Amino acid sequence: MRRGTFVRWGVPIAAAAVIGAAIGAGPVIAAVSGGPVLPERSAQQLLADAAAAVEKSEGMPPMSGTVQQTSSLGLPPLPDTGDGSPLSLLSGSHEVKLWYGDENKMRLALPTQFNETNLILNGDQLWYWNSDTNTATRVKMQEEHREARPTPTAPAVTPQQAAQRFLEQAGESTTISVSNTAEVAGRPAYQLVLTPKDEASLVQEVRVAIDGEHYVPLRVQVFAKGSAEPAFQVGFTQLTFTPPAEENFTFTPPAGAKVEEKAFGPSDVDTSHADGAKQVAETAKVQGGGWTAVAVLPADALAQEKDETGQEKDPRRGGEADAQTLLDTALQAATPVSGEWGSGKLLRTKLLTILLTDDGRLLVGAVTPEEITKAAGVQ
After folding, report:
1. Which of 91, 118, 213, 248 is the most exposed place for a label (fewest CB within 10 A)?
2. Which regions of the chain are under pLDDT 50?
């Protein structure tokens, strides 16, 4: 992750072009009486405004606020790690507090059930505070390696990241409309509504709220078919577009805390989880595309990670171990299925269908069971 990209927002040019081809100049949903009303914009105009705002400010404007992620995917009860691991994000609510001055001044507070971690970036110095271990680590960035500075891993994706993902997916298979009457964190916002056309998708619609003044994504909501409440959402619950006070970017270790010093360079980057994810991606094949894409990979691609002693790693550490724990737990509620493609176990949630075949394949997609078994028949 290059310097500053963690907090940049911008719709990729390719995504904007695809959306433009799909929707032309509209449509625009009429304003609803009683809500905040912004000047009308078509989806194309709104995305152009967002791109222009990024170009002007070279990223996000100064701000502070709270981001909340809520998941209700309809999965079986999952192990409670209580530490903000990726597995814990698949159910319940999680918060991240953010202070952003510019790409050299940022603070994230990551509260969990039992503790809190803080990551404070101020110029060439980075503090990492963990209240659970009562440890403060001061990282001194080596000038020649500042481009490789460590990027914080928040316990929830940002609205910007989620918005970009879904906008890249939108195209001719998507009906797109825009409303100018939404309100998020007390701010008037436009709301792009992305509706898949394919009946085989489990997604009813995705709503992307974009701030009416700064054109920054404020919230993303994903609705499953047949559900009135979002199955997944991430967005600001509180937000102020003013430069945070300088004191937010200074840190003094509490009395009695263990203080560690560390210099950071390229050799300090931990790529183990990234390498594992890359290996999984390389073994996966994709059947179909867009909203009805189905990932097909060997079931053992998520095999439990082992450390240097040969012992299985704690699943709370994330990565493939997390994914394997999720899969094992989910398949306990799966039902036996069979067809011309073979046999296996199938689990359908609000937004995902998972099929583990007896011949060692794992198929996952936001599609109906009929669609995923059809994919299983493709060799």
Report:
1. 213
2. 1-26, 30-33, 78-88, 145, 148-156, 266-278, 304-320
The pTM of the full predicted model, rounded to 2 decimals, is 0.76
What pLDDT is stored for residue 270 in this prediction?
45
**How far apart are alpha carbons 215 and 8 in whole angstroms?**
12
Question: Bridge partners of 261?
Answer: 138
Residue 302 DSSP class:
G
* DSSP track, 168-179: HH-STTEEEEEE
DSSP string, 140-164: EEPGGGGGG------SS--HHHHHH
- The verdict on whether omega for the bond into residue 150 sits within 30 degrees of 0, i.e. cis, is no
Amino acid found at 261: E
Residue 192: which H helix or E strand, with range?
Answer: strand 187-196
Backbone angles phi, psi at 163, to 5 degrees: -60, -45
76-111: b or e for each residue (b if 16 or more CB lie within 10 Å)? eebeebebbbbbbbbbeebebbbbbbebebbbbbbb
Residue 3, Cα to own-chain centre: how many angstroms?
19
Strands (E), 103-147: 105-111, 116-122, 125-130, 135-141
> Between the CA atoms of 60, 64, 66 and 67, what dihedral angle is there, to the nearest 10 degrees?
10
Q: How many CB atoms lie within 10 A of CB 56?
A: 9
CA distance 71 to 284: 25
pLDDT in tens, 50-84: 877 767 666 678 999 999 988 887 665 544 444 44
